[in-house]
Each structure stands twice: as structure tokens, then as C-alpha cells.
Amino acid sequence: MGFAALVLRERGTTPYGGDAEAGQDGAPRDEAADSEAADAEARAADSGAADPHPFPLLAASEPAPGDVDAIEALGDSVALMAAHLHAGMYPYLVGLARFDRVEGWKIEGHRSCAHWVSYRTGNDLVTAREHARVARALEDLPEIGAAMARGALSFSQVRALTRVARPETETDLVELAEGCTVSQLERMVRAWRTSNRLDEAERERVRHESRTFVAYPDEEGMCVGYFRLDPEVGAKLMRAVEAASDVLYRERSPMPVGPAESQRQAAQRRADAIDLVAERALAAGFGAEDPKTLSGSRADRTQVVLHVEPETLEAEGEPGMSELEDGTRVSRESSRRLSCDASLVRVTRAPDGQILNVGRRTRTVPPAVRRALEVRDRGCRFPGCGLRFTDAHHVVHWADGGDTSLQNTVLLCGHHHRLLHEGGWAVEWWGPDRRAAFRDPRGQLHVGRPPKPPGLEADPVQALVNRNHARGARPDPLTATPRWRYERDIPDAVYFRAVEAGV
Questions:
Q1: Closest C-alpha among 438, 452, 410 to residue 110
Q2: Rounded distance, CA 67 to CA 70, Å?
Q3: DSSP at 128
Q4: pLDDT by residue (tens digit) across 55-113?
Q5: What is the share, in percent, of the chain residues with pLDDT greater than 70?
Q6: What residues have CB less than 8 Å from 224, skipping those under 6 apart?
Q7: How many angstroms separate the CA atoms of 441 and 447, rounded?
Q8: Cα–Cα distance for residue pair 80/479, rounded to 1 Å
């Protein structure tokens, strides 16, 4: 009896190995009756007469362990809610694409749409980048968007499809994606991307441009991240890690352990090996003149010589000489920005241009103040940023009489430092606790505090369902369920059309 029930469930309103046009008893579906029932459901939802809690998972009690029917109903409820969430994700992506197209994120001073999404929606930056990318890609892929809008495709599936889909090929790809699991689809898309028609040189250039290395502390303070390196760089890194790991292995005289514990210890040794590699590299040094010193402010890390007259740096001064070593003109505001955190050498010239005196090199932000800023600010102070690579910005520029102290300096990343000097923004201290407040060119104040979360309906779940129904999205518990369990189950016609479309 249980097997018969399973077969009947597979032949529901959404096909799962069955006929889409057949009802649960195998007979042809009455489309007029279905339409009438859908209209009645929509009227009930619009009038507020719908069951406020249509999902068993929201009920007060949970099924007993042996109540198979109740457990299956709960599973259907979870799957149905997932389909509604997939459908609800589509309007969010449509709005995000429009927001990105008009560059709304620039109004609030963010570096990109992804940074705005991360700050305003509670997603990490990697996820936010994918949201922004997929949102823009869907503008040219209406069929993939329509499948997502009705709950048939999840964001993970759409994310994979948008990497290879084109307007002329998306139909075949949607047919495949609706029947596959996410892991199957990801695997096929990776294979298609590897075997595309780019010539080898172009493929190598694209691959090299995609290199990246990201590391950041998690909520427990552990350093986590990801990297994508050129093959030869990755090989060098792994050789160094393996060599250091071998040294640690010999030093610790390991005791015999089981296979699982042995793998865990090996992974920990590789983590410790990274520390040893970094320590030895810093001890060896990287520079010819001062191989042991890499720390300090930006002025120590990179030397760009800027010749500028004192009057040029003053807020009310006349624009005078401000040029790089090769004579390239630099604007006055750019000079003020660069001089916020730099090494300063005063040179006195005679009227005929001869040099009369060259003073000692000093830092506009002394090392002690810089260290105190690092402890206090922990990165860029602009709301939602926090980038660790920063400049020290004078709230009142030192050329205008401002002092170089904790009370008059704040750490900013390069992007937000440029906003304050060349972008028309300003920073001021706000409130009794002296928080850094940033005023945009419109006069709007941006204070370093989390944005107020948007207000939600009393029953956001039912509100989402009603909105989906209003848009015509009426998923059922099998809408988002894959049709084929294994790749060998995919019909040849569907598979080979998708292969042609993907490459």
C-alpha cells in the first residue's frame, strides 16, 4: 500500500516521472475545473478568507514518529514553501537589476551594487555578487526568469544556467534544468564551460583574469576565505605547504591513529604549515633595500612622489603646482587626498628655482597614531564597508590647521577616501559618542549603524503566497522537485539539445 501511495504522489499536478496532463488517478485532467478552482483560490486569497496557516510546518504540534501520512504532508509543506520562496526570489532579482541599472547604490556611497546588497540585505559579499550578476543576466533571459517566477527553478539552478545561457539557447536549457538536480546541472555546466569554443589563448587569458584570493575573519575570529590561482601558482603554494607540513610531521612524532583522525590531523598540519610558510617568507623578506620591513602605513608600502606647493593643499588656496615625478598634473583635491596619509619632505627653492634646503622626511600620520587608529577603527569607517586596506583621513586637513590625532583622523578605504575629496562628500563627528557621520552631496547624513529592517506583514508567509498567486505563480509540492534522479535517466533528445545550447 505504501508503494502504491508513492506512485500516486509521483503522478501529481506537476509531473515526476509521469504525464503532466494526467490527474492523480491517471485520467485526463479537467482544465476547466482546474481553472475554476484556481480562480476560487485566488478570490479567497484576495478576500483574506484563505487559511492563514496553510502549511503544516507552522502548526503547533509536529507529527508523531509513526504517522506516515502526517510526516509526508509535512514534507509536502516544506517542498511547497521552498517553491514559493523560489518564486518570490524572482521579483527581488528583477528589482535588483533595475536598481543596479540606474546605479542606485552610488547614491549611498557604495563601491558596487554587490556591496550595497551585502549591507542592506544581510548577505555576505560573495552571495551578494552572485545576486547582482544573476539579476542583470536574467534581463536577457526571459524564459529562465519565467521558470523561476513560477517556482520551478531555484536560485542555485538559475545561477548555473546564467553562466552559459543565451537568449537563443535558454529554452533547451530550461527543459533540462527543470528535470535535473542542482549538482547534476552544475556538473554539466562546468563541463560545457571547459569545452566551449574559445580558443586556447583566449581561454587562458580569461582564466588568468579570474584569479583571486580573499581572506577574512569569521564570527569566531578564525581566518577563512577562498582562492583561485593560476595552475603554476597553485602548484608552488601546495609544494610549499607540503614541505612545511612534512617538517611539522617529523617534529611532532605522531602516534598511530585511525584513518579519520589521520585525515583530520593532516588537515590541521596543512593549516599550521601556512603559518610556517608565511613566517619564513617574512623572515626572508621581499625587498632589496629593506627586506625585513613590510609593515606600516600606506606611505611605507608604496612610494609615489608628488610635487605640490603648500598653497595648493589649503582649502582656500589658489591651485598651484601639483604634479607627479613625470610631470603629470594632479588635481588639488587629489593632492589633498594623497597628502592625508603620506611621507612629507619640505623643499625650499629660490626664486630662480635652485634648491636651498631639503628637510627631513616626516609622516603626516605618525606610526603611533596609525597603530591607535587601527585598534579603534578596525578598517574603513564608512557604513557597510570595513575594508582593511585603508588611508588615514584628516577630518580637518592638516594643511588647513587640523592636528594629526585620534580626534581628527579616521580610517577610510581608497574608494571612500576619494568620495570625501573628489566626490563632494564630507565627514563629521556625530552624537555624544562621536560616531563618524558621512554627508553626501545632497546633504543626507549616513551614520555608521545598521539600516532599519523593512517592516513585514503580520503573516509574511501567507503574504508571500498571496503575492505569488496574484502573479499567477501557483506551485505545488512537486514543482521544484527534479524529474530525473540520475544523468542516465535524462532523455537523449533533451540532453543533447542542452549540450548544443550550453556550448
A1: 438
A2: 5
A3: H
A4: 544 554 677 888 888 888 888 888 888 888 888 899 999 999 999 999 999 988 998 89
A5: 72
A6: 215, 216, 217, 218
A7: 15
A8: 8
Of 107, 105, 109, nearest to 121 by C-alpha is 105
Residue matched to cell numbers 590625532: 405
β-strands 347-349, 223-228: how paired? Answer: unpaired
Q: Do the beta carbons of residue 446 and residue 48 sit within 8 Å? A: no
Distances (CA, A) of 348 to 66, 310, 353, 457: 91, 11, 9, 69
Maximal C-alpha separation, the chain = 105
Distance CA 89, CA 360 (A): 60
How far is 38 from 152, CA to CA, in rounded Å? 18
Nearest-CA neighbor of 475 among 464, 484, 460, 490? 464
Distance CA 503, CA 228 (A): 23
Environment class of 326 (CB within 10 Å of its CB; exposed 0-12, middle 13-18, buried 19+): exposed
Q: Assign residue 358 a region: left if phi > 0, alpha if psi is -120 to 50, beta otherwise?
A: beta
pLDDT, tens digit (0-9, with 9 covering 90-100), for 437-474: 999 998 888 886 656 666 767 777 778 888 888 878 88
pTM: 0.61
What's the one-letter identity of residue 62? E
- Over residues 376-404, the pLDDT tens digits come to 988 899 988 888 878 899 999 888 888 88
d(CA 493, CA 499): 10
- CA distances to 131, 161, 300, 449 from 116, rounded to whole Å, are 11, 24, 32, 14
Q: Dihedral through CA 182, CA 184, CA 190, CA 193, nearest 10?
A: -100
Residue given cell 517556482 in the structure block: 151
Is the C-alpha dihedral spanning 54, 57, 62, 68 positive or negative?
positive
Q: Could you tell me the three cell numbers for 492?
A: 537523449
List, in order, residues 6 or more apart from 196 with CB less than 8 Å away. 164, 203, 503
Q: Which residues of 191-217 are buried (b: 16+ CB within 10 A; e: fewer)?
A: ebeeeeeeeeeeeeeeeeeeeeeeeee
| Helix H or strand E encompassing 202 | helix 200-209
Place of cell 606611505: 299
Residue 392 contacts residue 373 (beta carbons within 8 Å) = yes
Convert the pLDDT of each residue in 183-225 to its tens digit: 888 888 877 765 554 455 566 677 778 889 988 777 766 788 8
Q: Pull the grid cell for residue 318.
A: 589658489
Neighbours of 375 (CB within 10 A): 9
